[in-house]
Structures are given as C-alpha cells and as structure tokens.
Amino acid sequence: MFRAAVVGATGYTGFELLRLLASHGGVALGALTSETYAGKEAGEVFPALASVVRGKFQKFEPSLCEGMDLVFCCLPHRVAMTSVPDLLERGARVVDFSADFRLQDLSVYEAWYKTSHACPERVSQAVYGLPELHRERIRKARLVANPGCYPTGAIVALYPLLKSRLIRPSSIVIDAKSGVSGAGRKADLELQFCEVNERFRAYGVATHRHTPEIEQELSAAAGGPVRVSFTPHLVPMTRGILSTIYADAQPGATAGRARQALRDFYDGEPFIRFMPEGAFPDVSQVAGSNFLDIGLTLDERTGRYVLVTAIDNLVKGASGAAVQNMNLMLGLPETQGLAHPGFWM
Asked: Which DSSP symbol is given to 105?
C-alpha cells in the first residue's frame, strides 16, 4: 500500500480527490493539510466523507510529508512553487495542481502570472500531466504538472488534427463554458448564488491564463507556433465544462478523416469516448467521472470543423487526472479508482 498526502485538501478539487482516494484501494492517506480547517476531522468539514476518510486536517509543514510516496499539492498558483521543491527533496513524487510548473517557457509564465518563478530549475523537470499525450514520460516523472480544466478538453480534441495536418493552425477558436466550481471554493461576491443564478457571461476574454497552456501543447502537435482565440464563460451550474471548438479544414480534409485521426490517436485510451456521428456531448453524462466525450462535424458551407468536448471540471479536469497521473507514477493500473461511471447529479 502506497502512502499519499494531500496538501491543501479542503477546496473543491481537494474534496474530489479525497472522494476518489477513499475508494482507490492502492493508496493510504498519510497526511491532510488545510490552513482554514486545521484541527478539524475530515468528516466534520465534509460530512459526505464521514466514516470514509479518517484523520484531521493539519497546518502545512513539509515535514508532514516525510516518508510519503506521493504528494498531491493543491496550493494556489505562485504559492506551490515555493513548497514543491521541499517536497521533492524529501523523496516524494509530486502531482502539482497549480500552473507553476505547466509552462516550460519561463518568460511566458512570468508574463501571464505577473511574477518571477521561485525555482526555475524545477520547471524543466516537470512533465505536463495529460496521460493521453505524455504517458511514458509521466511514468518516469518525479514532478507532474496537472493540466488545467479548460485546456484538457481543448487540447485532447485538437492535438490529433494538428498532428495529422487536417486543420489550419491559425484558425482555432475555443468557446468554453464552465460550472461555478471551476472558480474554487472561496468567498467572492461574483460567485455568490444571487450573482451567478440566471446569468451567463464571458470572462477573461483574450486574457485567460489557460491560453498559453493550450498553445504550448498545440504548438508541439503542429511543429510550430499556434495561437488560439480562447473565451471562457461562466454558466449557472455546479460542475462540468462544455467546449465548442472551431477550426478551418485544410484542403481535402473531410469529417471522416478527422474522426479517423481522433480514433487512431486515442485508440485504447480508457477515458476518451467518441460520440456517434451527428451526436454531441452533454456535461451531465460525464458528471463525477473521468471520461472526456468528443463529438465532431464538418460544416460544409464554411469548410470549418466543429468539435465539442465535455468533461467534469473537478474530475478529468482536475482530481481524476491527478489520480490517473498518480497511478502511472506509482506503477498501478491506470484506471484504478477511476473506473466507475460517476453520474454526480
């Protein structure tokens, strides 16, 4: 039985991670930390976990993670990079939920996150934690940068089409809608029920920090720089991300060739599901699960592909991906603890 710690365990992703690990069977929880709820039992903070997750939350000290096989670091951007090096030096493998190790170009990170990086030497050692693209590197990694929720759906849909030269790299538009849990479990007027209910709005237009993450991975697929137009929206629902993606088809490209490119690239992937021709994903059908559903068509009038993906932002977009990465890093079956269908309604 491996031992794992969760640092910053009381956000939405922390709760989801505890829920998944409680029934995992291959990992025992060795330490749980929370600055807000230190001293409280897990079941006291999250009644759904009572009698399922035992133990008290403690204030974070790196020494709490001594002897752990793996640490999930759920600390915020800019904070994680000051703690992760200490965790690595104590011998643990780390799955980091922040953006601090996702971007390999430090100048890009510093431009988008408006801060200098505290441990630039660790960035090149980090592996971007999308198993469908980087599985073998993840297996060998000591530090995995868990992907952002919005990038997951966009990258998975577009990567094979860029790799197969089926779309024009300069034409990509990503229109994504997320549930409110994507903003985190914090007090914020903009996220109060009366502010969110019956509203549907765009935010971070042309400035959202997930943009360079998407562009980094898609540029690798295209073999050259890719720039995307990415606009996220906040929808009055709790969880889920639906991404509608538009890209111009290259001459001679067809809907059938694109579907085949996706199926060939993701052949055997346990969590990628393809919708039948003419059908498109629904976030309710991936809720609580680690699945990513994809639908595709070619608009013959405009010569533009339309791809639609759906994920649960807290599972495949965060904690489920982290467990999938942990399984790979520890040599466990990749689907362990994630094989259930979910359906968190």
From this structure: -
Per-residue pLDDT of 246-266, as tens digits, reads 999 999 999 999 999 999 999
Whether 187 shows a pLDDT value over 80: the answer reads no
8-state DSSP, 40: S
Please classify residue 51 by burial: count the beta carbons closer than 10 Å to its beta carbon, then call 0-12 exposed, 13-18 middle and 19+ buried: exposed
Helices (H), ranges, 171-319: 193-196, 211-222, 255-265
- Digit-coded pLDDT (tens) for 32-55: 999 999 999 999 999 999 999 988
Q: SS3 of 274, please?
A: strand
Which residues sit opposite 28 in a β-bridge? 3
List, for residues 141-167, the tens digit of each pLDDT value: 999 999 999 999 999 999 999 999 999
Residue 41, phi then psi, degrees to nearest 5:
-70, 150
Domains of the chain listed by start with CATH number: 2-125 (3.40.50.720), 149-313 (3.30.360.10)
DSSP-derived letter for residue 49 is G
**Sign, Cα dihedral of 321, 325, 326, 327:** positive
**Per-residue DSSP letters for 142-205?**
SEEEPPPHHHHHHHHHHHHHHHTT-B-GGG-EEEEEE-GGGG-SS--GGGSHHHHTT--EE-ST
Quick one: pLDDT band at residue 345, thresholds 50, 70, 90?
very low
Euclidean distance between CA atoms 109 and 212, whole angstroms:
8
Helix, strand, coil shares of the chain, percent, nearest 5, are 35, 20, 45
Question: Can you tell me the distance from the alpha carbon of 160 to that of 268, in angstroms, rounded to the nearest whole number?
Answer: 15
- What's the mean pLDDT when you consider all of the chain? 94
Q: Give pLDDT, residue 269.
A: 98
Whole-Å CA distances, 205 to 169, 188, 230, 258, 299: 20, 20, 7, 29, 25
> What is the Cα–Cα distance from 164 to 265, expressed in whole angstroms?
10
**149 tagged catalytic:** yes
Which of 65, 73, 74, 149 is an active site residue? 149
Asked if residues 203 and 138 have their Cβ atoms less than 8 Å apart, the reply is no
Cα(320)–Cα(17) distance, integer angstroms: 7
